[in-house]
């Protein structure tokens, strides 16, 4: 099979899927009202109460932008939401099939039992959690290594190297000792943070004197996750990786796919005036400061338009910030400007395909495997789907040629070929934010120093955790943006009295 003919850039793929009605039941209604007639009228008359010269302009209608608008609406703060593409949701997209209850989350697909803001939002939107999975005892550290034709679980390594993990966990706990929703960057005050950026993972493991097999597997795991050589991975990055991957949190999924979250958020924030509260396609191309307000140049289907507002929220992917003309002259923090210009992307490929229905009925659960051989890949079986994560298309070619025995022996009850058809797999090529340890510290320091007092706000998971994408971190950043804007608005009202 020629994989190259089947590959799609992530954005191109999402665009094509969004334009295709076949197999896409329940795609978000961008301007749906979704409420009873009375509530719609209530919201219509509520418009008259808004002070439109105080509208917050939000650019980006992924989860960060939608949740920011949602929190602003709860506080009765007017806003306008702009999205550059033809759809909302960003990295969240659910593809449904004609088969009942069978769907695939192509982007974000789960969250943890301790993700309080996600659970609170789901309750607020009255969404259903999948009853088949909400009580499953799948833990993050329940994955298995397949190495030299043997299976080694992460827990086995954890127990074998317990004194080292105990020490690493102690250091991690110290870094996070004061972290909460009001002070997301407090670990920067720890004097050891900078020191941890100067210690390489390779040196750390040498000093730790880990068992050779365990050392090799942990190095492979870290290098695969971070797409860096061990000598370029710092102790700080290692601790953050442990924080994201080894906490024993139960996994939860939304009953009809993660896109339910986007659909209901879109209904809540789109308003009653078509293409007003939520406008797309509308791409921010420039921004400047003029007479104490922000001047925003926006490309729309009707051409270039200019919008003015005292408050702006940039809820677009971090790697796209450098494309906004004028932003570099506005930011006062030089370290932050450098990070925006220098940040790179980790290239990744996810192959997603269906297991046969007979297998799906017998195995309604998740299994996780890290294949360590000439190359490394991560395989997850989730309900009726197989998701294989690679660090590049060359790894895909290698995997297809080898058809690793690991799948037969560990993940599948039946023969590999009869359980899954790779010729019908979807390949999604994407990019994830990649930062060095210094860039992580510079980024978080910039927000620690300047974020609250700025009328130009940023929303996204990278603000809370620039190391790993997480839904709860997106909501945490949006929540903090709204708190900052409320403080700004209150301050400005006092000054004008």
Radius of gyration: 23 Å
Average pLDDT confidence is 75
The largest sheet has its strands arranged as 1-19-15-18-17-16-7-8
Low-confidence stretches: 1-8, 20-51, 131-139, 178-184, 414-418
Task: Please give the largest β-sheet.
Answer: 8 strands, mixed
Terminal residue distance: 70 Å
How large a portion of the residues is in β-strands, by DSSP E?
15-25%
CATH class of the domain at 51-91 and 256-343 and 435-496, anyone? Alpha Beta
Q: Kindly state the percentage of residues in helix.
A: 25-40%
CATH topology of the domain at 51-91 and 256-343 and 435-496: FAD/NAD(P)-binding domain
How many DSSP helices?
20
The number of E-state strands comes to: 20
The CATH H-level superfamily of the domain at 51-91 and 256-343 and 435-496 is FAD/NAD(P)-binding domain
| Anisotropy-based shape | globular
Give me the CATH architecture of the domain at 51-91 and 256-343 and 435-496, please.
3-Layer(bba) Sandwich
Structural class of the secondary elements? alpha/beta
